Write the structure tokens for this entry.
Amino acid sequence: MAKLLQILQLGNPILRQTTQPIYHIHDDRVQVLIDNLMTTLIKSNGVGIAAPQVSESYRMLIVASRPNPRYPNAPEMKPTVMINPHIVDHSDDMVNDWEGCLSVPGIRGLVPRYQQIEIEYTTRDGRIDRQVLTDFVARIFQHEFDHLNGLVFLDRLEGVQDIITEQEYLTRIVPATVEQHKIK
């Protein structure tokens, strides 16, 4: 049975390490890590998680966009496990939007990311898959992919003025975003 893992917090040196590729995808330890990562992601109201956030310095992440208390406007998608992922191509267009992180609780930052990316990764059953991701889902992937390279979203900020608290985000930014979508 999958278990909830402890999420490392900013300052833990594992979060600043470059992760190692996974060569034996069908190994029981890898499959158990996938299940535990999924449980941890769901229980913590995340929309994505990377293995280094739970003390495992491997190139694995999960993208699982869905509305939840931390991201009430997130689009719905099936959780996708990505092993040894990489970005194949990206748009020239960059978009600034607010991000938070399970490893940096209580803070949000306005982060520039590519609006569209093409990615390739190995699935949990060993198949190579390629997808084009856009907008919020592309943002999630880029955020989690940064974790595989020892980066957190704060490293991508253009300045400290682009930081707000989680409470300010949920009470001021989210309602304003909902209103913008109603106007269109």
